[in-house]
Specification:
Bound molecules: carba-nicotinamide-adenine-dinucleotide
Number of helices: 9
Order of helices and strands: HEHHHHEHEEEHEHEEEH
Number of strands: 9
Shape: elongated
Radius of gyration: 19 Å
Strand order of the largest sheet: 3-2-1-7-8-9
Largest sheet: 6 strands, parallel
Strand content: 15-25%
Length: 258
């Protein structure tokens, strides 16, 4: 038993289930990256509650309609609030990458568009809402990586391809469907898992939140600072910062080795 940790009895319970499990899946959201200083949408200081623009609300600015009708405002918001090219992985990203390496975790399913899981070394990352790392010309299909996209943004407020077409980030905006096959892959992972850990997500965005219904395994664990509509289905709810929980799990691992 570690003294002074956050909710250690709960973390110890989770630790025991991790040790017993053969196929763990992690389903996460923006709360996984807040400890890397990327704001989420729905926390009190999240992007949706920040005063942004008198004409458009942040919710509207991440929609397909906005991208089509008001691209200048869309790209201004996107660059200002959704791109964090200097962010670094935190304890959660690192712990999950390690868990995959140890053979316990079959994959990370994320709603995040940042690339911090990949940067931490995770291999199987199912990105439900796409990635900021890739951007496609709507006219010719040319693909631009983030650094090239940022260069294009510097020369024009609406990034343009060499062919003159508009470049769209490969992220799923509100009103848009998910990329083909991604949801099916997530279901495949979750339906085979014996432990599902969900963290840092308000579970209000669909279809991502509906993935919970495909879990048939032994234990469902929710780690989120605020309550979610799925808390009642969970075997364990930990209302703590997920990075702190992962640090405690790492300490428990190290103590066991020594
Ligand atoms: P959300 O609706 O903003 O919910 C985040 C949840 O995480 C909230 O319930 C918070 O209480 C909780 N939370 C915040 N910090 C922590 C923490 N350190 N530990 C534990 N819990 C925490 O975000 P969702 O992911 O649920 O919503 C889906 C949207 C948000 C997706 O479409 C994402 O693309 C989008 N988003 C992504 C990023 C990113 O890529 N990092 C950033 C902001 C928004």
């Amino acid at each position: 038993m570690i003294k002074g940790g956050v909710g250690m009895n709960q973390v110890e319970q989770l630790y025991r289930w991790i040790k017993e499990s053969q196929s763990i899946v992690f389903l996460g959201g923006a709360g996984v990256s807040t400890e890397s200083n990327i704001p989420d949408f729905r926390s009190a200081n999240g992007i949706f509650y920040q005063k942004y623009n008198r004409t458009f609300q942040p919710e509207e600015l991440v929609s397909h309609t906005m991208f089509r009708r008001y691209p200048k405002e869309f790209f201004e918001f996107y660059q200002d609030k959704l791109l964090y090219p200097h962010a670094k992985p935190n304890a959660t990203h690192e712990y999950l990458a390690q868990l995959e390496k140890s053979g316990k975790l079959s994959g990370v399913i994320t709603q995040n568009i940042d690339t911090l899981h990949e940067m931490a070394g995770s291999q199987e990352v199912i990105k439900l809402h796409g990635t900021v790392d890739s951007n496609t010309c709507q006219a010719c299909g040319a693909v631009y990586h983030l650094d090239e996209f940022l260069q294009k943004c510097q020369s024009h407020p609406i990034p343009k391809c060499d062919c003159g077409g508009m470049i769209k980030p490969d992220v799923v905006l509100y009103e848009e469907p998910l990329y083909p096959g991604v949801f099916e892959k997530a279901i495949e992972h979750i339906s085979k898992a014996d432990l599902l850990i969900i963290g840092g997500t308000s579970l209000v965005v669909y279809p991502a939140a509906s993935l919970v219904h495909y879990f048939r395994g032994k234990h469902l664990v929710l780690i989120n600072l605020t309550p979610t509509a799925y808390d009642y289905q969970a075997d364990l709810v930990i209302a703590e910062k997920i990075g702190k929980v992962c640090q405690q799990l790492k300490i428990l691992d190290e103590q066991r080795i020594m």
